[in-house]
Amino acid sequence: NSFGEAQYAAKASALKPIGILNTDSFFSPFMHQLEMMCNEGLLAENHYRAVLASPDPQELLHRIETWREK
User: Fold this and answer.
1) Tally: H helices and E strands in the chain
2) How does pLDDT run across 2-54, given as a tens digit for each residue?
3) What pLDDT does residue 70 have?
4) How far is CA 50 from CA 1, 18, 20, 43, 66, in A?
5) What does the alpha-carbon distance between residue 11 and residue 9 come to, in Å, rounded to a whole number?
6) Residue 13 burial by CB count (10 A; 0-12/13-18/19+): exposed, middle or buried?
7) Where residue 69 falls among pLDDT bands split at 50, 70, 90?
8) How many CB atoms lie within 10 A of CB 58?
9) What's the CA gap between 1 and 58, in Å, rounded?
10) Closest to 25 (Cα-Cα) out of 66, 56, 62, 55
11) In this structure, how many other beta carbons lie within 10 angstroms of the beta carbon of residue 52?
């Protein structure tokens, strides 16, 4: 059934958040690189906003749980 396959493909391609536990600012240079790529048009803004970083595990989990694609 092609309708069911289309629904599955749409669901599989839905944007999901990516959580990065940024302990001791280890991933800060990476996050800065993503920001620069977004500003230069090399990374879609909605993909950039899906990357969530925090040094606090509880805050990161909360942000992932409440994240909504815009």
Assistant:
1) 4, 2
2) 666 666 665 666 899 999 999 999 999 999 999 999 999 999 999 999 999 99
3) 76
4) 32, 6, 11, 11, 12
5) 5
6) exposed
7) confident
8) 8
9) 42
10) 55
11) 19
